Amino acid sequence: MDLIEAKYVRDIEPGEIIVIDEKGLKSYHPFPETKLSSCIFEYIYFARPDSYVFGRNVHMIRKGFGRKLAEENPVDADVVIPVPDSGVPAALGYSEYSGIPYENGLIRNHYVGRTFIEPQQAIRHFGVKIKLNPVRDVLKGKRVVVVDDSIVRGTTSRKIVKMIRNAGAKEVHVRISSPPIFFPCFYGIDTPTRQELIASNHTIDEIKKYITADSLGYLSIEGMLSVIPDSNGGFCIACFSGEYPVPFTKEEVIQLGLFEDWVKGAVKS
Ligand code: SF4
Fold first, then answer.
1. How far apart are CA 167 and CA 188, in angstroms?
2. Are 101 and 92 in contact (CB under 8 A)?
3. Quick check: CB of 219 below 6 Å from ligand 1?
4. Ligand 1: distance of its center to the CA of 42 in Å?
5. What's the CA-to-centroid distance between 248 and ligand 1, angstroms?
6. Does residue 235's CB lie within 6 angstroms of at least one atom of ligand 1?
7. What is the pLDDT of residues 230-264, one digit of tens each?
8. Residue 43 C-alpha to ligand 1 middle, in angstroms?
9. Which atom of ligand 1 is nearest to the CA of 235?
10. What is the 3-state secondary structure (H, E, C) of 75-90?
C-alpha cells in the first residue's frame, strides 16, 4: 500500500463488507456480532514489521514485547543480538530497556525460506546453517543475550545456541519474546502437533538444557497482552493458553487429539 502511496484509514473489520461505488463508501455488518479474536501471532511472527495490523504498527509492538521481556527476564550480559529477521525489533526493545548494547551477531541469508513453515525435518536442519552465519568479532569472549520471537520444536534454537558458542561466546542467554507454545492452532496456521511442540511436554528448565543455553526466559502471557494498547481481550491466544475462541464439539476434540487435555481441563471447549 505504501508503494502506491495509499492512505491508511482503518482496518476492514472481521465480518464487515465494504462496498465502494460511484455513490461513495458503504459499510455493512450482515452477520451477528461475535467476540473479536484476532490472531496474536501476527504481532509475534507472521506480519511484516512495517505493516499496520489490527490498527497497530507491528515493529513497535514487537519492540514493546522486547522491553517487557527484559523487564521480566533480566540478565547480566555484554551484548544483545537478535535472531534475524523477526527477532530484531524485540532485541532492540530488550537492549533499550536493559541498557545492554545491541549488535548484529548473526547474519541472515535472505535467499532461503523461513524454517517455521518447512515441513521436512531434514530440510529444517539443513536450513539453519545456510540461513544464519555468526559474526565472530561480535560474539568472541562475550556474554550474549540472543532474542528470538518463539520456540516451536526447539531444534532451530539448539543449533543457533551452538553456532553462537562455536563463534566464541562465553555465555549464551536465550530470551523469547512470546510465551511458551503449548497448543497447536486449528484456525489455518500450520503449527506442529502437541507432541512436536517442545513446551507442551517439557519444563522451561528441560528446554534450556535441550537447547544448551546458560539461561532461558520467555515473555509471560500477561506481559505480552500488557504491551498491546486497548487489547481488551480481543485476541486469540489459544496456542499459549489452550482457550480456543471457537468451541469444539466433543467429536472434534477427539479428532484433534485434544481429548486428554480436555478431560484434564487444559483445553477449554
Ligand atoms: S491458535 Fe490463535 S493465536 Fe495461535 S496461531 Fe492460531 S489463531 Fe493465532
1. 38
2. no
3. no
4. 9
5. 15
6. no
7. 777 789 999 999 888 887 777 777 766 666 666 56
8. 11
9. 3
10. CCCCEEEECCCCCHHH
Residue 4 — φ and ψ, nearest 5°? Answer: -95, 15
Report residue 129 as a C-alpha cell: 546453517
* Residue percentage of the chain with pLDDT more than 70: 87
Find, among 211, 202, 121, the residue nearest to 158 by Cα. Answer: 211
174 lines ligand 1 (CB under 6 A): no
Q: Say which residue, 192 or 58, is predicted with more confidence.
A: 58
CATH 3.40.50.2020 fits 40-235, yes or no: yes
Segment 154-183, tens digit of pLDDT: 999 999 999 999 999 999 999 999 999 998
Nearest protein CA to atom 8 of ligand 1, as residue: 39
pTM: 0.86
Q: Which residues pair with 121 in a beta bridge?
A: none
Domain boundaries of the chain, sorted by first residue: 40-235
Is 236 touching ligand 1 by the criterion CB < 6 Å? yes
For the segment 18-36, what is each residue's pLDDT rounded down to a tens digit? 999 999 999 999 999 888 8
Residue that has been written with the C-alpha cell 502506491 in this structure:
4
The rounded Å distance from CA 205 to ligand 1 centre is 25
Name the nearest CA neighbour of 158 among 139, 132, 181: 132
Q: Residue 82 C-alpha to ligand 1 middle, in angstroms?
A: 24
Cell of 142: 562475550
Q: Are 161 and 203 in contact (CB under 8 A)?
A: no
Nearest residue by C-alpha to atom 7 in ligand 1: 39
